[in-house]
Amino acid sequence: MRSLSRALEVFAELQRAERPQRLSDLARTCGMSLPTTLRILRVLQDFGMVSQTDKSYRIGPAVLPAARSYLENDPLVVSARPVLQQVAAQTGLTVSLYTRLGFERILVARVDGASPLTYDLPLGKRLPLTVGAAGKILLASATDEELQQVTAAAIAAGQEAPTFTVEQLRARLPEPGIEYAYSADERATGVLSVAVAVPNRAGRPSESIALTSPVETATEPALKAAVPELRRAAGRLAELLQGSVY
Amino acid sequence: MRSLSRALEVFAELQRAERPQRLSDLARTCGMSLPTTLRILRVLQDFGMVSQTDKSYRIGPAVLPAARSYLENDPLVVSARPVLQQVAAQTGLTVSLYTRLGFERILVARVDGASPLTYDLPLGKRLPLTVGAAGKILLASATDEELQQVTAAAIAAGQEAPTFTVEQLRARLPEPGIEYAYSADERATGVLSVAVAVPNRAGRPSESIALTSPVETATEPALKAAVPELRRAAGRLAELLQGSVY
DNA sequence: AATAACCTTTCATTGTATGAAACTAAACTC
DNA sequence: GAGTTTAGTTTCATACAATGAAAGGTTATT
Description:
3-stranded antiparallel sheet; 2 domains; 6-stranded antiparallel sheet; 246 residues; Arc Repressor Mutant, subunit A
């Protein structure tokens, strides 16, 4: 399925670029010939996944129904909503659900607490695994090899300095036996966060739930005191997922 | 690019289904062999466009960053926001921006007025072209052939009864020379709406702006009185689009 | 336990994806 | 505004990737 992989590369590159791209740019960045790139763009355009104006290509409107379909129908997101709401109600803090995608994590659901963290809801935001409680907890049970890949990916994505090493990463991760991660001023200054992983019947977890708070509102002990509550929520979510028809 | 087209068919079918699909279902619905369908799903899964649990496939989380990228970077959406906000402020009504995708339209931006229409913001919702002011105005300059296709597509999508005809559709559309469309109780009962098209340098328009109001809040004459304001907004948006770097 | 339905892999064949090259259009230079 | 460079598009021969039939394996059903 080479052509399909290449098409998805082009599609990913259009997202990464964050601005309209010319045919030759895309061909160069994705390492393929002009005719091939052009043919791929034409098909993507037929389906609305890509738009064109003059000589510039960008992501097209068809991604919106797709995202809507995901948010409304995905068992993870659907099951999580009531669970997150309950935690937000009990703690008064903002609760977020992340899912791992490649070597990053994506915010897929969020329920604001009493003091909302941000005005906008950055659903779909790509964040590093190396930074922030919700990222680090997903790496807690990772192998050395995987940490190596994560490190390389984070550097390549510009999320970490070129000097970043696996040792530095490991130092941030929770110690063995600790089933939550904590972060302060890591991803954003003035923000504290604890996160637990959503258990996964087999294999390492790819989802995490985080409690986040501005430093003025909560303290480290207060956040850590909420960890049992968070764990229960994660457990409940895992059960819901088992039960769902999938 | 047959394999790419087929992959996008599978992807579209997963959205249409609105629930996890099995391999054999997808193969049958999309009219392709099991091995081919499986190979497509595997590649889509590698990129996060599709998720799998046990034997069920569904839309994957990678669509969220894509949608986010669209909403944050697309010149249409970005340019429209201040324009819609101004109209909402001046009229106190909900203002929506739709774009055409195939034989449907998609809500890509909305700014609520004084009396919000709905609590949730159904961004990315697919709606028919045959119903509602914002759909009909996009068909105002359509050829007979195109109306025929639209009619067939609406019946196929279950948006119109099987007995629906081009004549019935034409009767709903604005008369020649009228540059706005009006609807009452068409798409939703108790909802009035006027819409104008966003002018397009060449070719027929594919975007429209609508003012919507519950029947209790506004009357037909009141809505129609806002049409000049709407037209100015559409013109301003068109200018912004010309000017943007694209 | 037996049967059926479904999923996955293998493999030979075809057809489609591919890039070089030629061509055209646009942008830039002077 | 003519000449030159760069970018986009089309054509075409070739190779290889996409394909489905068939076999094998797995899970569900009876």
